[in-house]
Amino acid sequence: MAIGERYESILSAACSVIARRGFHRASIREIARAADLSLAGLYHYVGEKDELLFLVLGRSLDRLLEALDRNLSEARTPESRLLALIRTHLDFGFHHAHALRVINRDHELLAEPRRSEIAAKRQAYLQRGLAVLRDLDPHGRPADELFSATNLLLGMLNGISTRPFLRSADDARALAAEVGALFLFGFLERSAHADETPHPALRRPA
Predict the structure, then answer these.
(1) If you write DSSP's letter for every residue of the chain in order, what string do you get?
(2) Mean pLDDT of the 11-33 span
(3) How far apart are CA 157 and CA 94, in angstroms?
(4) Given this model, what pLDDT does residue 189 score?
(5) What's this model's pTM, rounded to 2 decimal places?
C-alpha cells in the first residue's frame, strides 16, 4: 500500500474508533488493529494519541470547509447560499458521521497549541455561516443576534445529521430543503413547497 493510502487508512481508523469509543477510552492499540497495523507499525507513521486526534480533526474540518466553499461558490443568491450551507452540513453528516461526531465532541480535548489551530478552523466554518445569514438578513440585525442565529442553525443541523433523519443521500437533500424553507419562511408562514409530502422522519408517528 502506498504511503498516502496507508496514512489515509490510519486516520479513517482513528476517526472511527474515537467516534465510537470516545477519545479517552480509545486506545492506540485498538486504532492500530482497526488500521490493520501492528502497534510498532502505527508508530512508524504517527506519534501519540493526541496527534491522531489533531490529524483527524484537521482533515475532517478541511474537508468540510472545502465542500462548503465549493457549494457556496456555485450559489447565486443569498437564499441559495443558505441552502448550500444546510445541504453541505447534512451531506457531510451522512457521508462522514464519525468525523462530524469527533468535530463536535472532542475538539476541546486537545492540548495547546493544537487546540487553537483546530479552533481556528471551526471558527472559519462558523464565520462562513455567519456571512451567509448576514447576506440573507433583511432587518440589519446586530452582530450578536446573527451570531446566535448561526449557532442555533448549526446546532440544529448537528442534531438531525443522524438517523432516523438521514438514511440516504436523497434524505439529506430533501431534509435540507425542508430545513431551509422553515428557516427562510418561519413556522407561521407556509413556503411555496408547503403542500409537498414531508420528509418521513418529520411525519407524526402513527
Answers:
(1) --HHHHHHHHHHHHHHHHHHH-TTT--HHHHHHHTT--HHHHHHH--SHHHHHHHHHHHHHHHHHHHHHHHHHH--SHHHHHHHHHHHHHHHHHH-HHHHHHHHHSGGGSPTTHHHHHHHHHHHHHHHHHHHHHHH-SS---HHHHHHHHHHHHHHHHHHSSTTT-SSHHHHHHHHHHHHHHHHH-SSS--TTTTSPPPGGGSPP-
(2) 95
(3) 11
(4) 62
(5) 0.86
